[in-house]
Specification:
By secondary structure, this protein is an alpha+beta fold. The protein has helices at about 1-20, 45-50, and strands at about 20-25, 55-60, 65-75, 90-100, 105-115.
Length: about 120
């Protein structure tokens, strides 16, 4: 019985140290944004290529902004064990796409980081 208790404790510690991941948004291919042609590509074509945006905003002038975001953050052993080296393990992609009031693509702003 003593062995079973130690094995259960060891398993619990091992599971805690493996960490878990937090994800925000859906993954999308940020490289496809470079294929969109200002004044020609439509909002519907962009959505077909990238999927539904995380956020959609219509501005006062009638233009639309689509926001695509994907963040993955993974915990490391340093998050759980005192004095262990802390290693940030986060990657994120952020893309804002702008369209005129007729739904034609204007421009994009991309950011991407891996920490």
């Amino acid at each position: 019985m003593k062995f079973g208790w130690m094995a259960a404790c060891g398993l619990a510690v091992a599971l805690a140290l493996t960490g878990c991941a937090t994800t925000i948004g859906r993954d999308y291919d940020q490289n496809r944004v470079g294929q969109f042609v200002p004044g020609k590509t439509t909002q519907d074509q962009v959505i077909a290529a990238l999927g539904q945006p995380q956020e959609r905003e219509t501005e006062s002038d009638g233009n639309t902004r689509l926001h695509y975001q994907y963040i993955v953050s993974k915990n490391s052993v340093g998050d759980y064990v005192p004095f262990a080296p802390v290693k940030a393990n986060t990657s994120d992609k952020d893309t804002y796409l702008y369209f005129d009031r007729n739904g034609k693509y204007l421009r994009a702003e991309n950011t991407q980081s891996n920490q």
